[in-house]
Amino acid sequence: MDQLLIALDVESGTRALALARALDGVAGGFKIGSRLFTLEGPSLVRRLTDSGARVFLDLKFHDIPNTVAQAVESAVHTGAWMINVHASGGAAMMAAAARASRDTAARLGVPRPLVIAVTVLTSLDERTLRDVGVTRPMVDQVTALARLAKSAGLDGAVASPQETAHLRRELGPGFTIVTPGIRGASAGSAGQDDQARTQSPAEARRAGASYLVVGRPVIGAPDPRAAAEAIAQELARA
Ligand code: C5P
């Protein structure tokens, strides 16, 4: 299922590769975050992309435009299919990221990775936003940053389940929306883990998510392939 991205939040490259093999043909791609990347480096990303898998390299770059452009250039060399940056790095930084992905891909003769924006981390609430000087409501901040990302030439944004429908309405059909926090229905309701705001796979799809990121409901299941297949079937029916 093209829309289903599995977060490989595991402790080793060996385990990540075994999971990717077990989920071959069911997962639409795999998300590698800073833990696994810091441990295993770009060679793990390469192993996956060389095998034909789509990799969302979730490293959330946030630095001066030149440094982010260079990081994006390195990311393109790994064969990543999707990468992300923090929208709060500003329009110039995001434009530099978009340009670096386009130029590097053209130079290497490979497809350009999608570059998406992190708007407001879901671990923040309105109080902690105020602590860092943001006084407008969460939804306004998220929407403003997503708009900025779009106008800087980025392809989309990460959105919590609460924001997906709103962003889809505000940003239009061409904007890529990646939604984590998937629980319930076929994703299982046994535990929310630390996800406070969740949606079922079908709800996220109906709200307008382009891609769903699912971690523990699949990688923590006794049979990860069966768990992913159940989610894929729910998505196909939605
Ligand atoms: O295990 P679970 O399904 O909660 O995993 C969701 C994945 O999406 C994790 O890798 C988590 O870090 C990531 N994520 C998230 N919320 C965000 C952005 C990323 O849960 N806003």
Describe this structure in words.
With 238 residues, the protein is α/β, with parallel strands linked by helices. The protein has one domain: TIM Barrel (Alpha-Beta Barrel), CATH 3.20.20. The chain contains 11 helices and 8 strands. It has an 8-stranded parallel beta barrel with strand order 1-2-3-4-5-6-7-8, surrounded by 8 helices. α9 (201-207) links the parallel β7 (176-179) and β8. α4 packs parallel to α5 and α7 packs across α8. The longest helix is centred in the middle third of the chain and has 18 residues, at 91-108. The radius of gyration is 17 Å and the shape is globular. Cytidine-5'-monophosphate is lined by residues 7, 9, 31, 33, 122, 158, 160, 180-182, 193, 195, 213-217.
CATH fold description: TIM Barrel
* Derived structural class: alpha/beta
Q: What separation lies between the terminal Cα atoms? A: 13 Å
Q: What is the CATH C-level name?
A: Alpha Beta
The share of residues in extended strands comes to 15-25%
Shape: globular
